[in-house]
Amino acid sequence: MSLPPLRASSRLEDVRYEIRGPLARRALELEKAGYEVIKLNIGNPGAFGFRTPESMRVALVENLHKAEGYCASAKGIFPAREAVLMQQEQRGVLDVDHDAVFLGNGVSELILMCMRALLEPGDEVLVPSPDYPLWTASVVIHGGKVVHYPCRAQHGYVPDPDELAELVSERCKALVLINPNNPTGAVYPRGVLERLVRLAEERQLVIFSDEIYGEMTYAGAVFQPVAPLVQHTLCATFSGLSKIYRACGYRVGWVSFNGETAHAADYLAGLELLASLRLCPNVPGQWAVQTALGGQQSVRELVEPGGRLFESRRALLQRVAASPYLSCVAPAGAMYAFVGVDPQLLPDFDDARFALELLEEKHVLVAPGSSFNVLYRNHFRTTLLPEADQLDEVFGRIEALLAGQV
To answer: What is the predicted pLDDT for the residue at 4?
Structure first.
């Protein structure tokens, strides 16, 4: 007896997440065949020898006896929410309370939950292009329509508020900001953020601010949180332990709401319902939050001259500057570089084909630029997590592959 094909939901037809797509699966096949693949497609600090700060590991272990049952609140344990609240207060955000802080199994889960609670079919959400593709997927999978606003290399990948304003329609519900930005490394100036906040307040848009890379900035760039700038609309700030604190596997993220919350009571109640349906977020990892946010911010040691991320960034930029084929806006924050290939020298270049050839021939895995919801196909994203010497070797392989295509 043959069964009819079991189809995936039609809501998945336009959902893309190439970072863990066919290229990543092919990399696993090559590894099983005995090849050593350098995986630069995901910002996974643990894979490159970064350790979670010891104080966080100790906090988790010492509280394991408190983590064997569900936590009392579907939003998360009180000490973790209190730590997020205190961090926001230190940033000048005085209109947050514990009930407006939700813990999740990473920021990814919270993004999906926040969109699920907000969107009706056909509602529009402004998302940057390039973007972290989960944001686009989270809108599409819940029946919304993504309106991508361009962030161009010639402007340092910083959005133009006037251009963005032209894209706001009556169906627009929200504005997504990713700052510091993944994949480009852009860090938005305060003046630009103030204009974007004013636009959101005038058009009654919810602001979703992805700040998972927060204090991870280079060369004097200043990270400006959005929440202190918002008064007259709802603002959701997302962050977590995965990147700055090098604890991806703990799967702990949070979102805190501030600004105009009175009109959003029904939305926040809906979000709490969704939080309750999953019973609670991962409990052991939550016990590291208070220690992380209240302790020494060791990320500064990594992004200053002599620090590992700073030196890897320098090595990459030196390699790009010496290449006849490559260009890159120097990342001011986060842990990635969005590298362009000169279309005049390589007019037939295609990012997906190049990424596959680089994997098959040079055993290096990068993410094609078109994975990040851009229309052009001459970029790729790499992480800055390898040691400087390894990045230098990687770009030697990239250079050799490109030279063979001229």
So the answer is: 87
Is the separation of the CB atoms in 161 and 184 below 8 Å?
Answer: no
Q: Rounded to two decimals, what is the model's pTM?
A: 0.94
Percent of the chain with pLDDT over 70: 100
pLDDT of residue 406: 61
Question: Which one-letter amino acid corresponds to residue 242?
Answer: S
Q: Using CA atoms, how far apart are residues 80 and 105, in angstroms rounded to an integer?
A: 13
Mean pLDDT of the chain: 92
- What b/e sequence results for 71-91 when a residue is b if at least 16 CB atoms lie within 10 Å of its CB, and e otherwise? bebbbbbeebbbbbbebbeee
Same domain? 46 vs 59:
no
Task: Give the integer Cα–Cα distance in Å for 81 and 108.
Answer: 18
For residues 48 and 183, what is the distance between their CA atoms, to the nearest angstrom? 19
* Residue 192 forms part of a structural domain: yes
Among 201, 187, 333, 195, residue whose Cα is nearest residue 258:
201
Tokens standing for residue 326: 């490559």
User: Each residue of 68-88: pLDDT tens digit?
Assistant: 888 888 899 999 999 999 999
Asked whether 287 and 273 are in contact (CB, 8 A), the reply is no
Which structural domain, as residue segments, surrounds residue 218? 55-294
Same domain flag for 28 and 160: no
pLDDT tens, position by position, 161-196: 999 999 999 999 999 999 999 999 999 999 999 999
375 occurs within a structural domain: yes
Residue with tokens 């519900």: 173
Token code pair at residue 264 = 């959003």
Burial call 148-184: b when 16+ CB within 10 Å, e when fewer: bbbbebeebbbbebeebbeebeeebbbbbbbbbbbbb
More confident residue, 118 or 3: 118
Contacts of 328 (CB under 8 A, 6+ apart): 316, 317, 320, 337, 338, 339, 340
Number of residues that make up the chain: 406
